[in-house]
Every structure is written in C-alpha cells, then in structure tokens.
Amino acid sequence: MAVALAGKRKPPSFPAEVWIISITTFLSRSVGFLALFSTVFYKSMGLSPSALTLALFAGGFTGVLGSVAGGWFAARFGSTDVLIAGSLLNVPLLYMLGMSTNDPVPAIVLASLSVALTQSFSGPAAALVTGSAYAGNTVTVVAFHRIFLSSGVTVAPIMVSAVGEHNFSMLFFLSALGSAGTAAFLFSERARLRGAEALAAARERAALAPDLVSDSAAAVPYDPSRVSRLWAVVVVFGIAMAVYAQSMSGIPLSVEKISDGGRLYSVLLVINSLFIIFFELPISTLTARLKWNYALGLGIFVTGLGLAVCGAGSSWTVCIIGFVLFSLGEAIFIPQASASIADISTPAENPRYQGYLSAAQSFGFAVGPGLGAFGVLHDSALYWTLVIQISFAAGAVAVVAGMSKDRSSVRVG
Predict the structure, then answer these.
(1) What are phi and psi of 410, to 5 degrees?
(2) pTM value?
(3) Direct distance between the N- and C-terminal alpha carbons of the chain, in angstroms, rounded to an integer
(4) Interval 326-368: pLDDT, tens
(5) From CA 14, how far away is CA 4, in angstroms rounded?
C-alpha cells in the first residue's frame, strides 16, 4: 500500500505569489461590473445607437492603451507596484462614476479611464504568475490562475441580480470598494511579491550565465527569430480573441431562431463557466505534453469550430455540443498563449509582452462583437464558414511560428 501511495502523482503545489495574484484577480473580477454590463449601463442613460457605439469603441481603445501601458510600466517599475497603483487609481474613478450615472459625457470619460486601469492589471498579473517559482509547466500555473478569474466572472452577474441590474450607482460603489480591497491586499503582500520578482530575475541570470553574477554579463542578445515568434503569438492571439468574442454577439443573434433562444444563451454561458472552472486545469496537464505551438494552434481551431457548430445549429443539442467544443478550445489556447509568451521571453521582457498580449485581447474584444453582429445579420451561413477558415489559418500560423528552435515550454525549477 505504501508503495502504491508513493507512486501516485502529487497534486501541483503553487507558490504564494500565484495564490496572492489569483485571489486578487477573483476579488477584482467579482466586482468588475463595468466590463460585463457596459452596454446595459450606456443604454440606461438613453444613448443613441451611434453614441452607444462610440462609447463602446472608446472603452475598447482605452483598454488597448491600458494593456500596453501596464506591460511597459511593469517592465520599468515592477509588476507588483503597477498592480497596486492601478487598483488605487481606479478607486476614485469608480466612485465618481457611481456619482455620474445620469450624465453621459462624464460617465463615458470616467468609464473609459477605468477600463484602461482595469486592463493595465492583466499584463503584470500574468507576468507574476508565469514568472513564479512554480516548478512545473507554465501552462498549468496559468490554468490554475484562470480558475479564479472565471470564478470571479461567474460571481459578478449573481451580485448584479442581488443588487439590481439597473442600480449602477451602488454597483460602481461596490466596484470602488473591491478595487480598494485589492490594493490593500496587494500592498500587504508587497514584500513577498517583490521578492518573487527578484527571484525570477535571479533564476534567469543563473540559467543564462551560471558562472557570472552581473546583470550585464547575463544580458540576452537580440534574437530576431525569437522576437518574431513573440509577435506571432500576440497577433494570432488577437485574431483568436476577435473570433472568441463572437460568443457575445454572433452566438446570441444566431440562437434567436431556436425555440426559447434567450434561455439557451444563458445556459450556454453557464456551461462555459463551469467547464473552465472544473476542466481547464486538468486539460492543461495534458496539453503541457505538447509543444506550445501545436497546443496553441489546436486550441484556436477548436474554438472557432465550436462557435461555428453552435452558430449554425438548429437545436439545443447541437448548440450545446458546439459550445462545449468552444469551451474546450478556450481551455487549451488562452492559458497556452500566456504561457508561450513567458517561455519564449526573458523575465525582463515578460511583463511588456504580457501587456501586448492583453492589448491584443482588448483589441479582439473591441472589434469582434461588431464584426460578428454584421456577419450573422447579413449572411449567417457564409459568416460561420469564414469563422472556421479564419480559425484554421490563425491556428496554422501559430504552429508554423513555433517550428524554429525555441526554448522548451517545460520550465526548469
């Protein structure tokens, strides 16, 4: 019996910094009402369709800028301090937003600035998670972190139902309180997180030049091939996220033709959340055995295929099967993208490129829903065929990008 127990694989043990960032991510997403209900909020103020479109575009554009700025500032000042500063600065913005729910112009300005600060969180958080002392595969620790993110996204609508869907003043005050709590918790753990950043840099120096201790001696020479692969991941991820965003536009418009389509869409969202929470981490232990480019390409293609099956489906059964496929693809490619950036880049580059990756996601979310609505409303069959083709092409580019020599996706502890 003792031998049998000894032979069992131990569950992964995640470092303190991963738990800290994951908990703060859950807290911030649980009260991230603006990100989920911005359209409803703007409509509640009586904006015209054109003004509503411009307001959403402004939020998407500032989100891209915030993502880039977060990555750059993290590379300059450290991920921990950028997370603390962004959370603190968001408190007064969210509080003032709660006071401006009846005045469109200030509300749009404040909301756009808040989106920028919220998006600045993504790159530094991903850099701390992917650069942690976890000894296993990077994709596994990213998948663990995403459990907390998905759980927070699941909690937020429940809180909205409890507070009231149109009580935005109270919702934004709660968001401000959550942002203050996030900043306070991060500040209380600042020494531990800063220490983790220093250890990540030290591990990289030791791996690059074990006999040298100076930063200059361990400097990484510029490698055009490696930089090209980093940008390939960023660009492909942006395209994949634009396709992914069809779950918020193309899918609800497509399932309207099915009996009780509104309830079906709600069921699909619940299925997606539960799938990610319960299955993404186990799936990551399997995809970790693949080279990053094959896992990334496979996940992107399966995501698009699942959306097309669901969008073209004419029954609950087909749509649910398609959305399960979509959820499977998401569970593969989203953590793999962040892990790939971490494994190709150096610790000094990681926050910056994680910021670019977050910006690509923001860009995809900014343009994807509008394109999806246009495509489904004009020619649904042709549109879903194009989604499959675009997903296949993006997945193929991801595979090709990793065929040259690269760093192993298995991290050295």
Answers:
(1) -90, 115
(2) 0.81
(3) 30
(4) 999 999 999 999 999 998 988 888 999 999 999 999 899 888 8
(5) 24
